[in-house]
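ok so dumb question maybe but i'm new to this and my supervisor (M.) told me to 'just get the structure for Ribosomal RNA small subunit methyltransferase E' and walked off. so i did the thing. is this what she meant?? sequence i used:
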Amino acid sequence: MRVPRIYQPGDLIVGSQRLLDEDGANHVGRVLRMQEGQALELFNGDGNQYPAEIISASKKQVEVKVLDQQRVDNESPLDLHLGQVISRGDKMEFTIQKSVELGVNTITPLWSERCGVKLQGDRLDKKLAQWQKIAIAACEQCGRNRVPLIRPVMKLQQWMTEATDATKLNLHPRAHYSIQTLPEPMTKARLLIGPEGGLSPEEIQAGRDAEFVDILLGPRVLRTETASLTAITALQTRFGDLG
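this is what came out, is it supposed to look like this??
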C-alpha cells in the first residue's frame, strides 16, 4: 500500500511531535481512517519529504512524529509559468490540477476581454483559496515537494507586460512556428492560454508588442483546457523532464 502524503505548512523538525492541521487530520482520521503506528509522508514545500508515524488518531485530531528528512528533487529543469484566462465551471480546477502534475511552477489566473467568468470580492477570494488547495492536493498525489504558487488574478495586459527573462509563448491557431521549432536551450517560459472564445485581435497584438511568440500546436482547434495541458506536455517533453 502506498504511504499517504500529507502537506503541512510550517517547519517540520526531525524527532518532533505535532498535530496535523484541520485538513490533514480530516483526511487521515476521517477519510483514510488511519491508526496509531501507521506511516505517513509529510512535506511543507521546502523540497524535502518527511517520513512520519502516527502517535494517536481520532476523527478530529491526529498527532504524528517526524522521523526523518529526505531531499527528493523531482522538479523539472524547465521553470514554467502558466497564464490561464479563467475558464467556466470545473475546467479551471481541472487545468490547475493537471498542470501541477505536469510540473508547472506558477499559475496566474487572468481576466481577458472574452473571459465569460464573473468573480469578485469574497467569491473571488474563496475561489483562489480553493485553487491553491487543488494545487496542494495535486502535489500530494504526484509526489512533488514544492507547491506551485497560484497568484492573485490579474488583467491580461498587466501580466503580459510584467518584467521577466522567460521566453514568452502564446498559442495561436494560425501561427507559423511550433514548439518543435523553438530554439534551445530553454530554461524558463511563460505560456499564455486564452479563453474559450479566444483572445481578441487587440490582445493578440498586445502580446506581440510584449514580445510573445505565437506558436501552433497542430492542425486542430483545441478547447482551452486541452490546449493548456497539450502545450505544457509538449514543452516538458522538449525542454523539461517528460519522455
